[in-house]
Amino acid sequence: MKKDTRIETELKELESSKTLHLEIAKNMMEAYNSSLYPLDLLAVAVFKRSLSLIRGFSDSIRNKNFICAAPLVRLQLDNLLRFYACFIVTNPHDFAVQILDGKHVRNLRDMENKKMTDRHLVEKLSKEFPWIKPVYEETSGYIHLSNKHIFNTMNSKVEDEKRVFTVIVGDEDSEFVKDSLILEAIQAMKEITKVLLKHLHGWAYTKDNPDKIDQARKNNSH
User: Fold this and answer.
1) What are phi and psi of 96, to 5 degrees?
2) How many CB atoms lie under 10 A from the CB of residue 53?
3) Which residue of 40, 69, 111, 115 has the fewest C-beta atoms within 10 A of its own C-beta?
């Protein structure tokens, strides 16, 4: 059992975002006389996926299964990157329709006519949130078998002038998975979720205030 009490505190704070997820989703569906747009359907999928990932992540941490939890941080970042793409295309609803039709985001282009690969989306979003890039790079290492998985299962130290390796195999976290690493993962999940909800709220507001958005665009064009 982990000793650092901050882990449970941080997990509960992450899980408390469920209330905001549901509030924004409700506002979005009721916005503009409950009109339904293609982007709403994509957003609903993002809301659902986000809540499921947060639940799976929290359950895995509590069950001492960091190897299972860590990739979920990367999947939540995937949620953010792909919904963020809606904000940099010429026609967000057309973009949503193409996603619903099974098109891959990496094959679609933004308003600058650049393919929206993960790398491109990370570079664009990192201009506003610099931490996105290092988090993407770190968490991607948990998607495919890599040195991160090796380091989570073994340790080495020098005893009597000899290097001794210790390997632990099991379905629970070993002593080599430090509390500090777990806390970093929870913090990353919280920050990603925060930015994701900001963009989801942005769409809900845009949907409910088309006149204000149009006026703001006209003012910016002058």
Assistant:
1) -60, -40
2) 21
3) 111
Q: What pLDDT, in 10s, does the model give residues 8-64?
A: 999 999 999 999 999 999 999 999 999 999 999 999 999 999 999 999 999 999 999
Torsion of CA 53, 58, 62, 66, to 10 degrees: 50
**Would you tell me how many other CB atoms lie within 10 Å of the CB of residue 63?**
13
CA–CA separation, 120 and 140 (whole Å) = 15
Q: What is the rounded end-to-end Cα distance, in angstroms, of the chain?
A: 60
Q: Which residue has the tokens 């949907």?
A: 207
pLDDT in tens, 98-131: 999 999 999 999 999 999 999 999 999 999 999 9
pLDDT in tens, 144-200: 766 666 666 766 565 667 666 666 777 787 777 889 999 999 999 999 999 999 999
Rounded alpha-carbon distances, angstroms, from residue 15 to 11, 21, 25, 74, 188: 6, 10, 16, 17, 14
Distant-in-sequence, close-in-space partners of 100: CB < 8 Å, separation ≥ 6:
38, 41, 42
Burial zone of 75 (CB within 10 Å; 0-12 exposed, 13-18 middle, 19+ buried): middle
